[in-house]
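Q: I'm building a small set of examples for a reading group on sequence design. Run inverse folding on the following structure and report the sequence directly after it, with nothing in between.
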């Protein structure tokens, strides 16, 4: 599969939707050992990411210059199948 974005974007493929990684309060994340693998494949796209906290990574907000403003963001992406041709069609 080929994924291209305009502008460039990041992505990951997992066997779970993002909702599976949150606790019931929708704020805290579960540990990876708490996640039960599902049969599907989920593509998660990231246009931008905000870094971890300013002075520590466990509660402080990122410095202002590294924060993403709360606003609507738009991007486009395409997902295309990619086929590899093997010698003798094997």
């Amino acid at each position: 599969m080929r994924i291209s974005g305009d502008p460039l974007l990041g992505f990951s493929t997992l066997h779970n939707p993002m909702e599976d990684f949150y606790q019931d309060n929708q704020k805290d994340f579960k540990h990876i050992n708490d996640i039960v693998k599902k049969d599907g494949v989920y593509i998660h796209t990231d246009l931008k990411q905000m870094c971890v906290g300013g002075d520590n990574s466990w509660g402080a907000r990122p410095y202002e210059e590294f924060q993403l403003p709360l606003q609507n963001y738009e991007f486009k992406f395409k997902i295309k199948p990619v086929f590899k041709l093997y010698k003798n069609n094997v």
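Residues 2-89 form one domain.
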